[in-house]
Amino acid sequence: MRNKPYIIAYTPFEEQTLEKLRQVGDVHVIDKKQGSFRDQLAQHLPHVQALIGSGLKVNAELLDQAPNLKIVSNYSVGYDNFDIPELTKRGIMATNTPDVLTETTADLIFGILMATARRIPQLDRLVKDGKWTASVGRELFGTDVYGKTLGMIGLGRIGTAIARRGKFGFNMPILYHNRSRSEAAEAELGAQYCSLDELLKQSDYVCLMTPLSPETMNLIGEREFKLMKETAIFINGSRGATVDEEALIHALETKQIAAAGLDVYVKEPLPANSSLLNMEHVVTLPHVGSATIATRDAMEALAADNVIAGVTGQKPPTLINQEVWRD
Ligand code: 8YV
Asked: Where do the D-isomer specific 2-hydroxyacid dehydrogenase NAD-binding domain residues begin and end (predicted)?
């Protein structure tokens, strides 16, 4: 019988985060170098009270193996990897890391938009490859950003922060489609709510920032790409599965849309045989929206604070399923 709470960290964390967790519990780090991730996890699940990390699918099958689990702490704002109704039914707390990554992620997503529009990676490669031997020709000219229409699908915290950059930095009219209307965004940004189809037809930049859920799975597919302008640039900073990736590849191959900037994919890391890798008009980033040192440190600290609260009888600061909390 253990007398300290048993905590499993299944994503690499900084020593300072592990040290913080060790103040309240026995911490075991799953290290992929030590063998199969699944086997290690299976061995520890019967004893674990807290799980901390990102991306692990936490569903009934896993929970059946973890009868002592009190809290699952996601080191990310998105929690599509959690079966929240199942966790709630079992009285297990689920937490994520909102707010601390909002501005950093918005910076990066706006950065992809700029990089895709102005072909920054292609131009950088040209210079580094020693091919800058004359003035750059029209085939490498970009697309204007300033004053163009930005369509935001998903206007939550990060979506709103991206729209602010567009509105105040680049004078972009903002259209948005969201589960619910945001009077605050309409007042602050003059953002105009519209149907998904209207947004797709009118936007120069279509930026997808909606969380992944059964309702948003494959939200953008063949029909939606057909509705977009031929000059449209598509940006995805949400989750790969919100887009039908085959339909995206087809839309890019057939020039139904002009270009895409992507930080997320159906399968991550992106497989080496993905057609997206061979397209000059696609900018591919390796899921790094929140990846600055300061932001990742803040995410680690918040994810750890959630665990510490959860195993010491306090309410975790960013509890998702509030229903499970009883004083
Ligand atoms: C990941 C993210 O957390 O927060 C999210 O939802 O997608 C990212 O910030 C990050 O890749 C760490 O795993």
From this structure: 111-289
